[in-house]
Amino acid sequence: MTGVGARLVQAVDTELTADSVEWCPLDGRRHLLACGTYELRKPDGGLGAQRQSGLDPDEPQIRLGRLYLYSFHEDNFAHPLVEVQRRDTSAILDMKWCHIPVAGHALLGLANASGSIELFHLVGSEESRFQLQPFSSLALGEHRLALSLDWSTGRTGRASDRPWKIISSDSRGQLHLLTVDETEPRLQKVSSWQAHHFEAWIAAFDYWQTDTVYSGGDDGLLKGWDTRAPSEPVFSSERHSMGVCSIQSSPHREHVLATGSYDEHVLLWDTRNMKQPCADTPVQGGVWRLRWHPVHPHLLLAACMHSGFKILDCHKAMEERQEATVLVSHALPNSLVYGADWSRLLVRSPQPVPSWSCPQSHPGARAADLKVVGGLPAPSVERIVDDDREGPAKLHSGIELLTENKRKTGMELHTKAAKPCDRDTYLGRGNSDVSLLATCSFYDHVLHLWKWGMTWAQDHEDHSHKETKSVAL
User: Fold this and answer.
1) Which of 43, 325, 374, 429 is 20 to 30 A from 257, alpha carbon to alpha carbon?
2) What pLDDT score was predicted for residue 402?
């Protein structure tokens, strides 16, 4: 079933190429959405000699980044996302909110192109304007890019161990275990070790056994580690045929792990037996991010690069070891979807939402001039833009160099004041058939906000044209 059940609510121009989007998971802050951008520019506007993967931190390139903070206002039907802050930074490759307050603060962790993990803490209120301010920073090492991070606090309802832990990976193939202690709220490095021969694209905790972490690299290997003795991996799997770039442990069910790769497959694993996956689902695009639904344990959101985003029903895959069912598949024109995340908000459906359309036809958008004259990109999230920003943009990957015309959009951010939704409501306390999610993409530098009605989608799957009783998007 393609394109059923998800409807576009809003498209926001992020100006730079967007690759990470994260909804705040904390009570009273769930209306806040962070978005990170990454763009590579040569100082002289030329290409120069490039390392094959395009991620060499020693090359004379400027990696631009910007951190956005948005507030979701449900009653503003046309433009519910309102920008409340923007902050120029080093290019952002990944970011995650801590799932519990630290020293009374909501913390957002960033992995950046300067090779550092940065923590920002949320200050202010709806009345005094929320802001993300620097909290702590730690350099992972010289001549590297920080590629990913994960908090140990992701398990639903977990009374997390303290100090809280962060696992990070870098472009030199190393993993880094960090801690954040509430009594001394700053980042501290516990250990670092060599995990992969090339870029370690992703590192993630087992949320049920937080001494265990998983990593994926450009060498095509998926590995498990005991952080108490990380000199050798607990296991090493070659089941993915290309670079492993996304991993997430289920926050709902112990022993369930999802992984994704440039080989365009999502694999589900029982962590008690990592010899073979329980299920293998092709998704027709490199899987850069995976997110389990905050309430429904069988739903998995995947950012699939040139194949857009997909929502997978993993119930049969987990129970009967069958291929997951693709409930929704949206391939966005002329874009690479790198970021995707579910909101934990309880969303109402007071009015119909316009049917999905590509960003070019969204109200407020100008026609775009974009043409890709190469193949599809692979392991890199590097985009090189000439200094004058009018010439052709170049995208470097581990396989090929693509050329595309600079895209220009006219989408503007609307900041009309509106009443935010209930700060302390979330999906588990009401009708959870309607979900809110966000995605962000390269090429078109757009943040998309979507609503998805599960019951509505199921009715369409049954070829019923009757109005759904429990959900009206």
Assistant:
1) 429
2) 25
